[in-house]
Amino acid sequence: MSTYPPTQPPSNRTEDGRDTRSGYQRKPQILSRTRVAQSRLFQIESLDLRFSNGEERQFERLTGADRGAVMMVAMPDPDHVLLIREYAAGFEDYVLTLPKGLVDPGEDIITAANRELMEECGVGAHRIEPLVELSLAPNYMRHRMQVLLATDLYPKRLPGDEPEPLIVETHAIEDLPALLLREDFHEARAIAALYIARDRLREEKRDSATDLL
Questions:
Q1: How many Å is the Cα radius of gyration of the chain?
Q2: CA geometry: angle 142, 133, 107, nearest 5 deg
Q3: What was the pLDDT predicted at 20?
Q4: Which residues are 203's β-sheet partners?
Q5: Contact predicate 113/203, CB 8 Å
Q6: Residue 133 exposed, middle or buried by CB count within 10 Å (0-12, 13-18, 19+)
Q7: Helix (H) / strand (E) containing 180
Q8: What pLDDT, on a 0 to 100 scale, did the predictor assign at position 3?
Q9: How many whole angstroms separate alpha carbon 92 and alpha carbon 103?
Q10: Which helix (H) or strand (E) is 113 found in, with range?
């Protein structure tokens, strides 16, 4: 199993928060932070900020456990990807998306990705490679999702915490334009992950073809 760590971009900030790249402003100063509301899963926090030009604003953001999360592009063969159908409470409907989940305490992202695949899709992967890190609504939350490419799959089922069995579907990764026309396929992170994985696979095929010349 591959255990490549995700690539981290070099920091361009000084200790006081200034960005050393041309044209970038100093980060705003946090004057105060207040917990507005708390639920079982989420916390709403209010931030009083002073920007570098002296303007002051109040922002609200959604915070959580910051455990990290993974989303998997799992491919049973070089041309197809596994998608799951699950209930999305935000839309009060079932959606088609990629398997994903939180990183448990003590896990790295590779272990978490393989466990989630076994729980949600009934497969494990001999090879798992980090692809990209994505965020969602960064103005309101700092949640980040690690996207991983999983190949060389094998049957393996682990019990999960889903309230009902998930339906697993197999789709051709080159059929992304058709998927986008569906009303049940609209999660931005899943769409971005599939396009990134598709382009990576296309590039690898081109490189392999070049090597054979």
A1: 20
A2: 85
A3: 54
A4: none
A5: no
A6: middle
A7: helix 176-180
A8: 41
A9: 25
A10: helix 109-120
Distance between CA atoms of 52 and 48, rounded to whole angstroms? 14
> Which token pair is 191?
């769409």
> Which pLDDT value is given to residue 86?
96
**Structure tokens, 131:** 């692809």
Q: What is the rounded average pLDDT of the residues 70-85?
A: 97
Tokens at residue 33, please?
Answer: 């932070």
Average pLDDT over residues 179-193: 96
Residue limits of CATH 3.90.79.10 in the chain: 69-212
The CATH architecture to which 69-212 belongs is Alpha-Beta Complex (3.90)
Q: Which DSSP state fits 173?
A: G
Considering only residues 208 and 43, tell me which one the structure prediction assigns the higher pLDDT.
43
Averaged pLDDT, 153-174:
95
| 91 has pLDDT over 60 | yes
Q: How many other CB atoms sit within 10 Å of the CB of residue 210?
A: 8
For residue 201, the cross-strand partners are: none
Q: The pTM is what? A: 0.83
